């Protein structure tokens, strides 16, 4: 049995990843999030478990005992940190404190806490463990107004680099941070609606129909990192 735990599935890349992973045999998906689509609620059952939580409130995340009960018979465990927010965008000194704290908690604290809980819950005979942190090119360059998003993604990459080093001699483990690039998602819509120096580049990508479909990006990530 393969168990996939994934955050941020109500739209965009997360929804596409969930749809494609559900189609794979002997795979059960635990979807974590604040909201779910009507289709996901219809599909909920043994293969798709919907677990409501607020990533901005890490105390609402599943605990190690809860995860351990779910994955007790797992041959393979996959954890995908997809959920993220790009807000707040703006100059440091003008950022709303509540949005700034939410960004750090959703983008960085929640992935760290969830990873810690999952690793402590792994069954002793699990044969494969794959951890994926969905990062961004913004983690490695300065983009006007994106201080919170860039810093949290950079921090996430650093955390998962430490996890990768921790398990580098254990062939069962694969730990990656991936940059999926721009795509046609709600986050891109939020970016186009913000006021910052580089906004026009993102608007041009949309106007010129140059934003990839999230389904195509999901298929690439699965084929490269998550294929059963």
The low-confidence runs, each spanning 5 or more residues with pLDDT under 50, are none
Question: In DSSP terms, counting alpha (H) and pi (I) runs of 4 or more, how many helices?
Answer: 8
Q: What is the succession of H and E elements?
A: EHEHEHEHEHEHHH
Number of strands: 6
Strand content: 15-25%
- Order of strands, widest sheet: 3-2-1-4-5-6
If you had to describe this structure to a student in words, what would you say it looks like?
- With 228 residues, the chain is an alpha/beta fold.
- The protein contains 8 helices and 6 strands, in the order βαβαβαβαβαβααα.
- The protein has helices at 12-22, 38-43, 64-70, 97-121, 147-166, 186-192, 199-207, 214-226; strands at residues 2-7, 27-33, 48-52, 76-81, 128-134, 173-178.
- A 6-stranded parallel sheet has the order 3-2-1-4-5-6, with helices on both faces.
- Helix 1 (12-22) packs across helix 8, helix 3 (64-70) crosses helix 4 (97-121) and helix 4 packs parallel to helix 5 (147-166).
- The radius of gyration is 17 Å and the shape is globular.
- The N and C termini lie close together (11 Å).
